[in-house]
Amino acid sequence: MTSNQPSFAVALETPVLPVVGATELYPVRRVYCVGRNYVAHIREMKEGDERDLPFFFQKPSDAIILDGAELAYPPYTDDFQFEIELVVAIGKTGRDIPVTAALDHVFGYAIGIDMTRRDRQREARERMLPWEMGKSFDESAPCGPLHPVAQSGHLAQGAIALSVNGKPRQTGDLSHMIWNVPEIIANLSTQYVLKPGDLIFTGTPAGVGAVQPGDRIEGTIAGLGAIHFTVAAKGA
Hints:
Blueprint lengths: L15 E3 L6 E3 L2 E6 L3 H7 L9 E5 L4 E3 L3 E2 L8 E3 L1 E7 L15 E8 L2 E2 H9 L5 H4 L5 E3 L3 E2 H4 L6 E6 L2 E7 L7 H8 L9 E4 L7 E2 L5 E6 L3 E7 L5
Parallel strand pairs: 3-15, 5-11, 6-18
Antiparallel strand pairs: 1-2, 3-4, 7-10, 7-16, 8-9, 8-15, 9-12, 13-14, 13-17, 17-18
């Protein structure tokens, strides 16, 4: 019997990240982001209490784009901004993870950029609405390759920086995080079961700002090298 009903079967591809020194790829399950984790950034944004516990929001896993890609300038914004961040990749399932055991759950680290429609984020904040419109759009999570802990070690300090067209825009140090990596993992695991494939963007230092079509973005973190992206023309 022939049906006139349309077929909704779609082959969905799992987003993946390359792993330095390996042929295997890291499949991305979820993308968590920490809001307001550097004091200087809280002060420049004029928001929040510096003593607040970390809070989290998510981006869709298919918002990931890889090092060297052209980054789409999104619709519905006139203020498209960058936020350089250390990314933690989870490699072991856990819930209610103690701070003392948190690093056992880390597979590796990467450089990420939390791209933001700042005008939409501000509107949402003022109206006390969720941040998705400002944070969770297509191609909003550029991310470099993962460096396994066995190669990079655990990162608690080191320079983190971003430049646009060769001009420094953000500079900081991982040691300036209000909540460090073990504390972030422990806190997040009280809210969600963390599993292999989960990425955590850990917050950004001061200096965030807007980019324009044609701009070239470079992000660096000591021990992780550099990533590069070019901003595409609007509507491209």
